[in-house]
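Quick note —
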Amino acid sequence: MSPIAFLRKPTFWLIVLATLAFAFVPLWHDNVELREELLIAAIYIILAANLNLMIGYAGYINFGNIVFFGLGGYVCVWLVSSHGWPLVAAALAGAAGVSFVALLFGLGILRLRGAYFALSTIGVNEGVKAFVANFTPWGGSTGIYLSIEAFQPLGGPKQALWVIYLLLVAVMGLSLLLSYAIKTSKFGLGLLAIGQNEDAAAVLGVPTPRYKALVYSASAFLPAAAGALFFFKSAFIQPDDAFDLVFSTEAIVAVMLGGQGTVIGPALGAFLYEELRSTLLTSQTFSNFQMVIAGVLLLVIVLFVPGGLMGWIHRRWPRAKRVLE
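Predicted structure written out below.
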């Protein structure tokens, strides 16, 4: 698709409008509570949109997607705390490094398929978590803590929280635009062919090993950047928080809820799931049953609405495909 045609698509402008809404609605009344709520929603959208590149396009379920988020956070916090790097430079360096490592890993583990690949991604996450927990330069099991001076280049702690939020919203918008750009490209067409029938795609000339490794690498870059910003905001990072498989499971639920293989679906699913999650966590009755309800929700989607919300919308209103891709 040409750049002009890309800019004319309603989906592009819908992504732009949603990103601007995330950025400016909390700023309008300096609403800190809304900012923190939307920040978590933005992180879930980033994870779901990039996970959709593997699940929705290439047809590979990645349970260890959170490893990119955690590694990006560790590299960034380490560069800032030990070497005095600026936040943006450290976040970009972490994202680039994690993406390159993902490319190398992808060339190996993407030879596996189905349940074997899914299990291998869990193994990668747990292996990296064990390594980091014993890696002394990164604080081992106690992690890395930032001093308050790290926030001074951003205008102090209060101003830094708004800067980090806006940067995370920008990463969210870029995640959705990346998903849309890939889906509407020749590369995306090859990924969709792999997702439908990998052997047939290879026969038709799709370089399946290269395409799979490239999309695995692409799905790592922006989650790593998001992890860098999130853990810098938190001012500390520990292995248990950075590599928590619950986040990956929740991201999969969000993708399935919204509709895998679509652009808007994972974002919609992530936003709705985060709203449900926050409601459950603040409920005295259901606060301990968050993951149980997430599992039941995933089961219901798979059995009764396999196309997710976007699949249901497209069946109910076929013309909606022109706007909600």
